[in-house]
Amino acid sequence: MRKHLFVITHGVCLLFLLAGVAVVSAQSDPQKPVETSFDVTLHVLAGSTDSGQRSDLPASLAPVAKQLRAQFGLANLRLADTYIGRIGNNGTIQYKSLADIEGRVQPETPSFLDWSIMGLRDITGPQKGFYIQAFRFGARVPVRVGGGADPAGKQMAPVQYESIGLTVERMTVGENLPVVIGTIASPKADGGRVFLVLTVSPAGN
C-alpha cells in the first residue's frame, strides 16, 4: 500500500513539474508574437486671415497645408500644438491638458483641451491603414465679452469660456499619412479655424 502511495505521490509531483516547465517555456518562447502597438500624432493647426503671423509647419504637413490654404483661402496657417501617444491594437487613448490654440501667452486665461481615440485597429489588406471606432476632440477657450481697456491699456472685459469640439464615429486612416479629421470655427473674430490632423504609424521599439 505504501509503495502504491509513494508511486502516486511522485507521479502527481512530476505532472506539476512538467506543467510548470511548459508555462515558463511558453512565456519565454521567442517565436510567440508580441502584440503590436501604434504611435498616434495629433497636430492642431490654427488658420486665419491674418497674414502677419508666423506660419512654420513640419515638412510632413506640407501637402495638408497646401490643401487647407487653397480650400479655405487662409492667409496664415500655423502649428498650434502637437500631441503624441502610443496605443495597442483595439486600444484607447485619452488626453487632457492645458492648450494654447490661439497662440497667445496668457497664463491667466488658458485653454483646456480633451481628446481621445477609441477602438483603433490595424487593417489587414493590400492597403495598410487603421480603423478607428471613435475620435473625440474638445476644448474650452476663453472669450472676452464686451468691456474695454483702462488708461494703462489693461483689458477690463470679463472672460467667458466657450466650448468647441468635434466627434467622429467609425473612420479609417492610412499608415503614416497625415489626415484632416475635421475643422472647428475659432471663437476669434478674424475668420479663424482650427484643423485637426491625425497621423497613425506602427510603433518602433
Task: Please tell me about this protein's structure.
The strands form two sheets. A four-stranded antiparallel sheet has the order 2-1-8-7. Strands 3-4-5-6 form a four-stranded antiparallel sheet, with no helix packed on it. It has two helices and eight strands. A hairpin with a 7-residue loop joins β7 and β8. It starts with a helix and ends with a strand. The protein has 205 residues and is an alpha+beta fold. The model is unreliable at 1-28 (pLDDT under 50). It has two domains: 1-32; 37-146 and 157-202, no CATH class. The longest helix is centred in the N-terminal third of the chain and has 26 residues, at 2-27. 17% of the residues are buried.
Average pLDDT over all residues: 78
**Overall 3D form:** elongated
Report the strand count.
Answer: 8
Taken together, the total number of domains comes to 2
Unreliable residue runs: 1-28
Residues in β-strands, percent: over 45%
Oligomer: single chain
- Helices and strands: which structural class? alpha+beta
* Major sheet description: 4 strands, antiparallel
Question: What proportion of the residues is helical, as a percent range?
Answer: 10-25%
Number of helices: 2
- Terminal Cα separation, in Å? 59 Å
Could you spell the SSE succession in H and E letters? HEHEEEEEEE
